[in-house]
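Comment on the following before class.
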Amino acid sequence: QQCILLETFCFKIGMAYINHLVERGDYDAAARKCQKVLGKNMDLWENEVYRFKTIGQLKAISQYLPRGDLRLRPAIYEMILHEFLKTDYEGFATLIREWPGELYNNMAIVQAVNEHLKKDPTNSMLLTTLAELYTYDQRYDRALEIYLKLRHKDVYQLIHKHNLFSAIKDKIVLLMDFDKEMDKVVEELKDRPELLHVYLHKLFKRDHHKGQKYHERQISLYAEYDRPNLLPFLRESMHCPLEKALEICQQRHFVEETVFLLSRMGNCRRALQMIMEELADVDKAIEFAKEQDDRELWDDLISYSIDKPPFITGLLNNIGTHVDPILLIHRIKEGMEIPNLRDSLVKILQDYNLQILLREGCKKILVADSLSLLQRMHRTQKRGVRVDEENICESCHTPILPSDTAQAFGVVVFHCRHMFHKECLPSPGNVPGIQYCNICSAKRRGPGSGILEMKK
């Protein structure tokens, strides 16, 4: 009984001292004293917390609250977190890092943070704290998305710690914002080749040159995981080693890709041979020959097709605008049955007639344009030319008009606007009655020709 009385006496003394400190405004010391005076009495703790709330000093008592085996109701911790969230983002972030996630209702705090982010969506401190809350709640994909947006240094640690490689696949585009850490991203993903391919592919689509040192590695990745995009990659990449790409495509028997690489490396005849022998696609072979626009390729195509009636039909239908069809028709063996020959010949005649019509139409346009330009030139040359005292003779460089205009004088003005005294002009050329401007004539025929003519 004496012990109980002593404890009661000590408690009263302790509370009196806490009250004294509060009255003095020494709230931190009062809150620190609560740890010794209140002990494990949860009711007293909660009463004291509400008192500190009443006087607006929840922050002072927050760091001394029980957080071990002895804990208050979650509502108490949430009340303090809400207070910090209203006035002190940094203090709120500190409490989230220091307090175990079991002390409070994590979802309620997440919701409160999201409400604040609606007002300030780019606040990095709030976003980082939200990511930590998602991590406590094991919602790692949401935390990862925030870390990626913030380019947070812990993003790779989070991925490895919680094996989030599958979750990052849909957000791989965000990794491309880590420009300075591209090598680190590639190193982190090297053991996940399919994920590495997704990252490098999206990086290439964004900028063909940024990841150029990985283009050689990408050839194998495309071949293994994404063949449909291999050919577009080979077409668009300027840093892809062609020999390495050709080796990989030949090993895997990728005919279309091999054809492209052979043509790009200048071996068009071999490329055409592959199209005809391995693809047996006359339309593709014709299209390839059209792209290269090489007479030798057309000869090879005709030679290969001459004993294959379906190929001959394809050529007859498409060759007319590039090669004279007669060259092909003369080489067809007598008696060979060619499917749809009549239709093919009709098409050749139609194409020929179309070419004739196009030529005639172009000729009419040229004639009409020439006549229009001639008429314009004639009208221009009929216009008068102003001659006054400011003009000079292009030969003697004296004023073109004499000081005494009452005297007889002769002036020659060419359509090019060069002017000469009549007596300063050289003798006419070989054509009687036709005089050319000495200056313009020299420019057309070469330097010095005008002077030579004057000497003659």
Notes: The chain has a mean pLDDT of 78. The chain is about 65% helix and 0% strand. The first helix runs from residue 2 to 24. The radius of gyration is 46 Å.
